[in-house]
């Protein structure tokens, strides 16, 4: 197992490098970089994309004024443009910039945001609690509900209980998360009906003044609606996956033999079937957690006014804040690859008969 872990760790290096190379290359061809953003703001356009979409007028501005490479650089001296390039490091060739960036990232030196004058690592650490809250609690609740429900559905396969629970979770899966979030706000956060939960934020303004129990209660009071909105679509896939996995195992010969010996149903399910059936469910944990942690939180954070990594990444992409974009991509890519390795090790923990080394030889 040690050799397998070492090989997987070594494989992380080229994989992560490939991710960074592809994304760095793509950004070289995307219009509206950080210098264009500054020029657009100085020209009063507000946003570089307005200038790009402006058509002929903006094209005329770029002719004969400032630097021809930058749309809208009217009246700006070339010396000023050159200083901006030097400040952002664009006076160097792309290959040199990429190698310098990767050398810094290997040492976990992510630099500073272009537009916030704050270290990128400080920005990420500041936004991390919100995303951890959504990702961790949503995944935990989904597993705590879906696994027992999926087992019960497998045992009661074809019964009315199986039918109506399948209908309920499919309806939940079909409802978009943002629409369910808006519904929760209208019903329970001061909309047209009740005001049981706060509208925004992760904690109250007087959070530091509360007792320990008060802080815990305030925290859960604030995260209830966002976590529900994030979790609603997770039940269907995980529940049906658990059900089908258990059904496949229940029909095997060793289960029939165990029943013939008179073993209790609970012992058969949780002593024999559970270990084999849960392998495929465990395999989906990393993808589910990473998906909720990095993807589904953008809209939910916006609706509930939560300042997390989702909004940080979106704002950085719009502003072309490259240090934030590439640093978060590097960290999240590294986390995703490590979580994949942890998932494989969990296989062995659940079923010691699995040996990845012998399968590769």
Automatic annotation (TrEMBL):
Coiled coil: none annotated. GO terms for cellular component: plasma membrane. The chain crosses the membrane at residues 9-26, 132-151, 163-189, 219-242, 277-304, 324-350. Keywords: Cell inner membrane, Cell membrane, Membrane, Transmembrane, Transmembrane helix, Transport. It is a multi-pass membrane protein. It is found in: Cell inner membrane; Cell membrane. InterPro entries: MetI-like, MetI-like_sf. Belongs to the binding-protein-dependent transport system permease family. PANTHER family: INNER MEMBRANE ABC TRANSPORTER (PTHR30465), INNER MEMBRANE ABC TRANSPORTER PERMEASE PROTEIN YEJB (PTHR30465:SF66). This is Microcin C ABC transporter permease YejB. The lineage of its organism: Bacteria, Pseudomonadati, Pseudomonadota, Alphaproteobacteria, Rhodobacterales.
């Amino acid at each position: 197992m040690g050799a397998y872990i070492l090989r997987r760790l070594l494989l992380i290096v080229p994989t992560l490098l490939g991710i960074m190379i592809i994304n760095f290359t793509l950004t070289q061809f995307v219009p509206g970089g950080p210098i264009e953003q500054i020029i657009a703001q100085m020209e009063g356009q507000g946003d570089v994309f307005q200038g790009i979409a402006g058509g002929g007028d903006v094209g005329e501005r770029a002719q004969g004024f400032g630097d021809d490479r930058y749309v809208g650089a009217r009246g700006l001296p070339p010396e000023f443009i050159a200083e901006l390039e030097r400040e952002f490091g664009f006076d160097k060739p792309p290959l040199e910039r990429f190698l310098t960036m990767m050398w810094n990232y290997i040492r976990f030196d992510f630099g500073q945001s272009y537009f916030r004058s704050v270290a990128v690592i400080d920005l990420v650490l500041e936004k991390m609690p919100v995303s951890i809250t959504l990702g961790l609690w949503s995944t935990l609740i989904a597993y705590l509900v879906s696994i027992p429900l999926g087992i019960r559905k497998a045992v009661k396969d074809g019964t009315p209980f199986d039918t109506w629970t399948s209908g309920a979770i499919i309806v939940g899966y079909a409802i978009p998360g943002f629409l369910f979030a808006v519904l929760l706000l209208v019903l329970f956060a001061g909309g047209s009906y009740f005001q049981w939960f706060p509208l925004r934020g992760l904690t109250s303004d007087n959070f530091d003044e509360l007792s320990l129990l008060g802080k815990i209660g305030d925290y859960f009071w604030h995260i209830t609606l966002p976590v529900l909105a994030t979790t609603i679509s997770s039940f269907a896939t995980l529940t049906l996956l658990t059900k089908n996995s258990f059904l496949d195992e229940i029909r095997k010969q060793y289960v029939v033999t165990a029943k013939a010996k008179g073993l209790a149903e609970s012992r058969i399910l949780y002593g024999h079937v559970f270990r084999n059936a849960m392998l495929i469910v465990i395999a989906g944990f990393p993808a589910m957690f990473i998906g909720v942690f990095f993807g589904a939180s953008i809209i939910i954070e916006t609706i509930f006014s939560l300042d997390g990594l989702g909004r940080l990444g979106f704002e950085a992409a719009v502003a072309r804040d490259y240090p934030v974009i590439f640093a978060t991509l590097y960290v999240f890519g590294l986390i995703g690859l490590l979580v994949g390795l942890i998932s494989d090790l969990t296989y062995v923990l659940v079923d010691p008969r699995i040996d990845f080394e012998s399968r590769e030889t």
